[in-house]
Amino acid sequence: MQHDAIKTALLASYETDGGINHLDGINLPSQESVNELARDCMHLLFPGYFEKSGLTKKDVPALVSRLLAGIEDRLVSEVEKSLRFARDPDPAVHARQIAQALLGKLPELRKIIQTDVTAAFHGDPSARSVEEIILAYPCVLVISLQRVAHVLYKLGVPLVPRMITEYAHERTGCDIHAGATIGSHFFVDHCTGVVIGETATLGNNVKLYQGVTLGAKSFITDEKGHPVKGVKRHPELRDGVIVYPGATILGGDTVIGENSIVGSNVWLMQSMPANSIAYYQGDQASIIRPRKKKEAMIEEAADWVI
């Protein structure tokens, strides 16, 4: 009887408290199916690393054929749902084209993902092997899946790219929006608590530590007070930038110049020239000054690893 009363109250709330119901609407992408898609992509990108048993070279063609077929079918299904949600005029055809476009990008994605693994291995002296990096470092999962999701994002797919990056976020504690543009040799050490916004742009050889936020300073709103979509809101980090733990960098017009360093816990809403350093000194606001030659030499020799 108690359940009957609760059921009646819930059914009434579905009628009166709208906005979080999706009843009699377009079938939405399945979270579990997208999670499985993400896992299959990792198997395809890193053959032999995530299988339950050893993989030989002669087994690889069959594995790749099976994974490609499964990923394409699942991707077509979930992308088609997303396109129907967005009222695409021909979702079935476009979903198939998008799936094939993503699969065609996988060899290219593997090349840049290999640079990320290399950056992690050379960026952390505690790493003993590339195998350890791939199997145990959360940055591999989150960066690899972001690169996959970014392709779908650029192809205009709604919902699914964010769902893929959210799977990685749940697994790693690192939240990189599918829209962020990221160069080669990207390393996020420790990963936990890192947030990178949709319109952030990162050059090559960028290194971040835990707790870094690349966020928006403010939102432009329309006449109804709603945030305007598609505006550049997040910072740009150029080649060779290093950002230490807990730093926050905000704003779409904020540019951190090449080979600059942002120190721990710095709050930054202004651009930095190339080869400079920002840090706190006592209770003063962020100090930005040119990097000294000795500091650059120390960085190259020791990498200031935490």
Structural descriptors:
306 residues, alpha/beta, serine acetyltransferase, domain 1, UDP N-Acetylglucosamine Acyltransferase, domain 1, 2 domains, six-stranded mixed sheet, five-stranded parallel sheet, 8 helices, 44% helix, disordered C terminus
In short:
The protein contains eight helices and 15 strands. The chain has 306 residues and is of the alpha/beta class. Strand 14 and strand 15 (287-290) form a beta hairpin.
Detailed description of the structure:
By secondary structure, the protein is an alpha/beta fold. It folds into 2 domains: 146 residues, Orthogonal Bundle (serine acetyltransferase, domain 1); 114 residues, 3 Solenoid (UDP N-Acetylglucosamine Acyltransferase, domain 1). It contains 8 helices and 15 strands. A 6-stranded mixed β-sheet has the order 3-6-9-12-14-15. The protein has a 5-stranded parallel β-sheet with strand order 1-4-7-10-13. Helix 2 crosses helix 7, helix 3 packs across helix 4 and helix 4 packs antiparallel against helix 6. It is globular. The protein starts with a helix and ends with a helix. The C terminus is likely disordered.
| Assembly form of the protein | single chain
Structural domain count? 2
Number of strands: 15
Low-confidence spans: pLDDT under 50, at least 5 residues? 301-306
Can you lay out the helices and strands and say which pair or pack?
Layout: H1 2-16, H2 31-45, H3 60-85, H4 91-123, H5 130-136, H6 138-154, H7 160-172, E1 175-176, E2 181-182, E3 187-188, E4 195-196, E5 201-202, E6 207-208, E7 213-215, E8 236-237, E9 242-243, E10 248-250, E11 255-256, E12 261-262, E13 267-268, E14 276-279, E15 287-290, H8 293-302
Parallel strand pairs: 1-4, 2-5, 3-6, 4-7, 5-8, 6-9, 7-10, 8-11, 9-12, 10-13, 12-14
Antiparallel strand pairs: 14-15
Helix pairs in contact: 2-3, 2-6, 2-7, 3-4, 4-6, 6-7
